[in-house]
Write a structure and sequence with these properties.
Elements (H helix, E strand, L loop, with lengths): L8 H12 L2 H10 L2 E6 H6 L13 E6 L10 E6 L1 H7 L7 E4 L7 E4 L2 H13 L21 H8 L2 H7 L13 H12 L4 H12 L6 H17 L5 H19 L3 E3 L2 E3 L6 H27 L13 H18 L4 H18 L3 H16 L6 H15 L4 H4 L4
Parallel strand pairs: 2-4
Antiparallel strand pairs: 1-2, 1-3, 4-5, 6-7
C-alpha cells in the first residue's frame, strides 16, 4: 500500500494498524474514536432523538471518523456515536458489515456477528479515553486550512478548539454532530435558526458582546500609556477613569441642539454616577491583580499588560462561524467570510498572537473566574501556554500579519 497522508492522528493510527494487519490494534483505535453516522437531514429534523441505520446497496452501514467526514451539505447530517453504541444497537436484521471510512486507504469492513459485537464491546471497555483529548492542539492535515488568511482566522478561534478537543483548522465543520451542535447553540446562545446565528455572529464581529465597561477601562489605559509613553500607575488610571466618567455625565446633562430644536437632557442621578465610578475603580483593581498573576504565571511578560478584551468576541466569532456550518444555520461561504473578518479584526486590535491570547484569557477570567483563581483561571492559563509553546500550535507557525 502506498504511503498515505492521514487527515489526523485518529486516521494515522488506524492506517498504521491496517498496514501491519493488526486488527486488534485497529479495534483499539476505533474504540477511542468518535464515529459519525450519516442521516437524512429531514428525518433528523422531524425526530432529533432517533438514529436510524440506512445501509448501502452492498448491505453495509457507513460511518466516518472525525478526520474523514465529507464536507457538510444541505441534505445529509452526521450523528456522533461510539463503537459501543453500535455494538449495543445492532440487531439481527441490521446490515452484515460496518463500513469504516469506506473507499479510503484506511477503510475497514467489519462483520457484525454476535461474536464480533462482543469483541467491539470488549475493546470499548478497555479503551482509556474516547475522542480527541481536550487541552491539546489537534490539526486537520488534509481538508483543513494550514496557511494563509483563512488559517489565521481559524486560529483566532483556537482557544475554544483546544479547550473543546477539536481541530483548530476545520472550516468544513461537523463538531460533535448535527443534533449536539444545535443543542449547544440553543442552550448557550438561544440560537434556533439562521437569523439568530447570523445576528449573534455579527455582534461578535462588532465586539458587541464583551463588556463595554471592560473595554472602556482598557482603552483609557491605552490612551494614557500613549500620552505618557510608558506604564500607567493603577491609581492614576483610576483617577483618570473617574474624571472621564464625571465629564461624560456632565456633558450628557447639557442641552443639545438637534434638527428638531434644543433638547433639554435630564441629568443622571448622582447615586447612579457614583455607583458607576465605584464599579470602574473596582474593575481596574481586578484587572491589575489578574495581570500581576498573569506575569507570575508566564501569561504576560514581566512588563506586559492587556490592550483589549475584544479578542474574546473575535475568537468566539471564529468558532460561531463554524458552529453555523455544523447546524446548517450558515453556509461554508458565509463561515469563510466571517472567519476571514475575525482574523482581520484581531490583527487590527493586537500586535501578536501572544497579545491576542492574553486579551482572550483576561476576558474569560473576568466573566467566569471572579478572582477565585480557580478552574476557569487554570484552564485559561493552560490553553494560553499550550498555544504559545506547543510546536503544533498555529500561533507558532502562522504569521500574525
Amino acid at each position: 500500500m502506498d504511503e498515505w497522508t492521514a487527515p489526523s492522528v485518529i486516521e494515522r493510527e488506524l492506517y498504521g494498524a491496517k498496514v501491519r494487519g493488526d486488527w486488534g490494534a485497529y479495534l483499539d483505535a476505533l474504540a477511542r474514536a468518535e464515529l459519525f453516522l450519516p442521516q437524512p437531514r429531514a428525518q433528523v429534523d422531524a425526530d432529533p432523538r432517533a438514529a436510524r441505520f440506512h445501509p448501502g446497496g452492498d448491505n453495509t452501514l457507513a460511518v466516518y471518523t472525525r478526520g474523514m467526514l465529507p464536507a457538510p451539505d444541505a441534505h445529509t447530517v452526521y450523528l456522533r456515536q461510539s463503537l459501543a453504541w453500535f455494538a449495543h444497537a445492532w440487531g439481527p436484521g441490521d446490515p452484515s458489515h460496518l463500513a469504516v471510512n469506506p473507499g479510503s486507504p484506511v477503510a475497514a469492513y467489519l462483520s457484525t456477528a454476535p461474536a464480533d459485537l462482543a469483541r467491539w464491546r470488549a475493546h470499548w471497555d478497555a479503551a482509556p479515553s474516547w475522542g480527541l483529548a481536550p487541552g491539546a492542539v489537534h490539526t486537520l492535515h488534509t481538508g483543513g486550512a494550514l496557511h494563509g488568511p483563512v488559517a489565521r482566522g481559524l486560529a483566532v478561534g483556537a482557544h475554544l478548539a483546544v479547550s473543546n478537543g477539536e481541530f483548530w483548522n476545520a472550516l468544513a465543520y461537523h463538531g460533535d454532530g448535527y443534533t449536539r451542535e444545535r443543542e449547544r447553540l440553543r442552550t448557550m446562545w438561544e440560537i434556533t435558526d439562521p437569523a439568530g446565528w447570523s445576528g449573534v455572529l455579527q455582534r461578535m464581529l462588532d465586539a458587541d458582546i464583551v463588556s463595554p465597561v471592560w473595554e472602556f477601562a482598557l482603552r483609557l489605559r491605552r490612551v494614557l500609556a500613549s500620552d505618557f509613553a510608558g506604564a500607567v500607575d493603577a491609581e492614576h488610571w483610576r483617577h483618570a477613569a473617574e474624571s472621564c466618567l464625571r465629564h461624560n455625565a456632565e456633558q450628557a446633562a447639557q442641552p443639545r441642539l438637534t434638527p428638531d430644536g434644543v433638547t433639554v437632557a435630564q441629568p443622571r442621578p448622582s447615586a447612579e454616577v457614583e455607583g458607576e465610578i465605584a464599579g470602574v475603580r473596582r474593575l481596574i483593581g481586578r484587572i491589575t491583580r489578574y495581570e500581576q498573576r498573569f506575569r507570575a504565571d508566564g501569561l504576560l511578560p514581566e512588563d506586559g499588560w492587556v490592550r483589549s478584551v475584544r479578542a474574546w468576541d473575535y475568537g468566539r466569532a471564529s468558532q460561531m462561524a463554524r458552529w453555523g456550518v455544523a447546524t446548517r444555520y450558515g453556509t461554508l461561504q458565509e463561515a469563510e467570510r466571517a472567519v476571514l473578518r475575525a482574523g482581520e479584526l484581531a490583527v487590527g486590535a493586537y500586535g501578536s498572537w501572544a497579545e491576542f491570547s492574553a486579551g482572550y484569557a483576561l476576558a474569560r477570567c473576568l466573566h467566569f473566574d471572579g478572582e477565585e483563581f480557580g478552574s476557569w483561571y487554570a484552564s485559561s492559563l493552560a490553553t494560553h501556554l499550550t498555544l504559545t509553546t506547543d510546536p503544533a500550535s498555529p500561533f507558532l507557525h502562522l504569521p500574525w500579519e
